[in-house]
Amino acid sequence: MFLLKKVIGFLLMPLPLSLIFLGLGVFLILLLKRRFLARLCMALGLGILLLAANRGISRVLCASLERRYAPAPVGNIANVSPLKACAFVAVLGSGHGNADNLAASQQLSSSGRARLVEGLRLAIHLPDTRLIVSGPRMGDDRQTHARVLADAAVELGFPRTRILEIDTARDTEEETVALARLVAGERAALVTSAYHMPRAMRLAKHAGLAAVACPSDYSDRDGQNTFEIRFFIWDTESLSNSTRAWREYIGLTWSSLRGK
Questions:
Q1: DSSP state for residue 234 in the 8-state scheme
Q2: Is 240 within the bounds of a domain?
Q3: Are residues 81 and 206 located together in one domain of the fold?
Q4: Buried b or exposed e, range 6-32, using 16+ CB within 10 angstroms
Q5: pLDDT of 33-53, one tens digit each?
Q6: pLDDT tens digits for range 61-109
Q7: N or C, which end of the chain has less CB nearby within 10 Å?
Q8: Helices (H) and strands (E) in the chain, counts
Q9: From CA 114, how far away is CA 133, in angstroms rounded?
Q10: Strand order, beta sheet including 163-166
Q11: What is the value of pTM for the model shown?
């Protein structure tokens, strides 16, 4: 079921979905001579690709997710409620590579590094907390993602004695369940990408985890009022951001259908 969910989710992403419609259009026009249906499928495929790769559209999709929770305050947060009540800082997993000649911090994906940096910032300002890192071993990984995150934190000067690892949870739902068991009723600062935070907080609430949202890894960091100009720009970064947002909308819908 887990693998089937991942496969279906991948096929519903903008690029695979657009390629499916384009390929179906070619099939219809070459083999079945159904010109109208072929043109409709090809128009849908091209339309999905153009919308997803547009910087303005991708910003709208991401902003509707990223603005639901405010970032943790800048500066000393030791006396900021409700963060000062947290006993743990939990960093949700992302991804990493397996290059032996790279430090653990350089093996992390860009999202993984952004999440870890924010988690370390919070944990340093909250010296009584413990840092929880999460992620299993996937595919050809030589070690768990949790261990790579822990090693990266140690490389950056954080004491390993303050780090706990969750190395069996395969997705956000399993992570929040494992976190709820580990913190045993204590409050945790939950760190993940801003676009991912709405789904993570919904699942955390369902799992009974007392979480404080601490989003990171924002897709838009320039703060400039160039919103109109963005609608005239197409690039692969926008396609990537649209894909992330679309994945979250599908995940939120799936969670809602299951009552989570």
A1: B
A2: yes
A3: yes
A4: eeeeeeebbbebbebbbebbeebbeee
A5: 888 999 999 999 999 999 999
A6: 999 999 999 999 998 898 888 999 999 999 999 989 888 899 999 999 9
A7: N
A8: 11, 5
A9: 13
A10: 163-166, 130-134, 88-91, 187-193, 210-216
A11: 0.90
